[in-house]
Amino acid sequence: MPELTVEEARSAAAEGWIWGYALLQNYRTMCPQAVDQDDPRYVGGFGHFRHYSEPFTPANTDVVTPNNDTPYSWAWLDLRAEPYVVSVPAVDRYYVLPLHDLDTSYVGYIGARTTGSEAGDYLVAGPGWDGVVPEGIAGVLRAETFLVGILGRTYLAGPDDVPALREIQEQYRLRPLSEFTGTTAPPPAEEPVWPVWREEDLDTVEFFTLLDFLLQFFPVLGTERELRGRLAALGVRGSGEFEPAALKPEIRAAIQQGIEDARARLEEAKTDAADSTHWFGTRAEHGTDYLTRAVGVDKGLYGLPAAEAWYAGWARDDQGNRPPNASTHDHVIRFAPGALPPARYFWSATMYRLPERLLVANEIDRFSIGDRTPGLVYDDDGGLALYVGKGRPADPKQAANWLPAPDGPFTIAIRVYGPDASVLDGSWTLPALSVET
């Protein structure tokens, strides 16, 4: 293979960084959860669920932009030796178990919207598996990487609903195919030497050392053959042997410049990215738009596709303050009559402090507000005004509709579960986040 020029190396590094950003951010979560047994976030290794049944509070800091609508069920699968079977009970509420590849592209979904409320067993197979699907399998999900993640969500009606939620979660099961069929298990896959996650590697040439390791679990796809070829020309072949120190100084410098180019492109792309319509989805839905995928990963890793749940918020208020800041202004969100978020299931608005994107402690322990919030006071015409501020409003109506904010910058995430077509096509839009005068 001809040696790359400095400009070719810079271009390949920029493209490879944007494409590989999702893989590294995914590993950033997978490593403590599935690999590092000493980490408090450890779920038990591959092939185990860890459920969160209690509502999140500001004390929970291991997940950014958490929600209390649908507590999480985490799991990771290693499909190198054999497929897994995911089993679910009959579920009387909204739930979804989305399975994602190593690059966060969704493999498929098990849940209320896609497979219904009935109990079922679903086979998850890795690349190249051509075995016999056993009888009784309700569906087959075919992954394109050997490592697959699950971030399940199950609806929680409130604190009193926790026991019922936990009963459902405990019936989600993961079994290797051999255990499901009662046959002899194949030999286990070789245990790799998992790299230690280092935050600083995202913005240095070491990014490609970790990417090179991860690519051994990611066979080359036809649609990405050219891109993977350019990475291979840099020495990133999936061998786990990429060594930045062995590069010529001018090539190493070009790769670093390419990373900086890519980071600038990502920062620019996410500046005014206001909603999640195209951020999350299957590989077919993403196509080759890796930049938009990277925006979604940066804004909300493992967000659901828009058909399942639509996310939006406000980068600035109606006076141009960016980000909005509750230390200087109170705000109001006014939904016109008939213009509340149109949802098949439910909607919510959750407050987060910036820059941490964590829940905000407040005197009434209200971290979100939405169509299930008791005691909301609607306008006489059927509209709804939500009051956003650091202090409880004196007016009783405003206090009933108060979403507490931090004493400083904040962001609000609107989540619409089962969004109407009008949300997806843009004919329904969010109202302004208005400065209260």
From TrEMBL:
It holds the Pfam family DUF1254. Residues 309-420 form the DUF1214 domain. Residues 47-176 form the DUF1254 domain. Gene3D superfamilies: Domain of unknown function DUF1214, C-terminal domain, Domain of unknown function DUF1254. It comes from the Bacteria. InterPro entries: DUF1214, DUF1214_C_sf, DUF1254, DUF1254_sf. PANTHER family: BLL3101 PROTEIN. This is DUF1254 domain-containing protein. It comes from Streptomyces narbonensis.
